[in-house]
Amino acid sequence: MSDRSRAGNATAGVILLLLVVSGAGAWNYHRNLQIERSADSARPYQSYASADLEALRSAYASELESVQADLAHSKSRRGHVSRNKGSIAKNVEQFDQTAVASSAIRRAAASVAERKSQIAELETELELRERYGQGMARHLKLLLKIDDLFAS
User: Measuring CA to CA, how many Å separate 105 from each of 45, 63, 75, 79, 123?
Assistant: First the structure.
C-alpha cells in the first residue's frame, strides 16, 4: 500500500470522526436547548444582571424578616375573645376589633407569602444561570453538557 493511499484512508477516518462528533454535538445542543426552554416558561428576572439579582434577593430576604415580624405582631394583637361581654354594644365592639385584627393578620400573611414567592423566583433564576451560564459559556454548556442525558 502506498503512502498516498494510507494518507487518504487516515483523512477519511478523521473526516468521519469529525462528522460523528459534530452530529453528536448538534444533537446534544438541541436537546439541552429544549430542556432549558421548557424550564424557561416564566422568567421575569431574565434581563437583570446576576449581581442585581443577588442584591434583590438579599433585600427581599431582609424585607421578609420585617414582614414576618409584622405577622407575629398582628397575631399577638389578636387578643382573647369572650363569648358574652354583657351588652350588644360591647359584643359589636369586640367583633369590630376581631375583624380588624383578622384583616391585619391576613394582609401580613399575604405579604409573607408574596416575599417568599419572589425569593423563590429569584433563586430559580440564579440556579438556571448557574446551571446553563451566560453568553458563550452558556452555548458551550449546551453543547457539551451530558449529565441530564439519562435523567430524561
Answer: 30, 17, 6, 12, 27
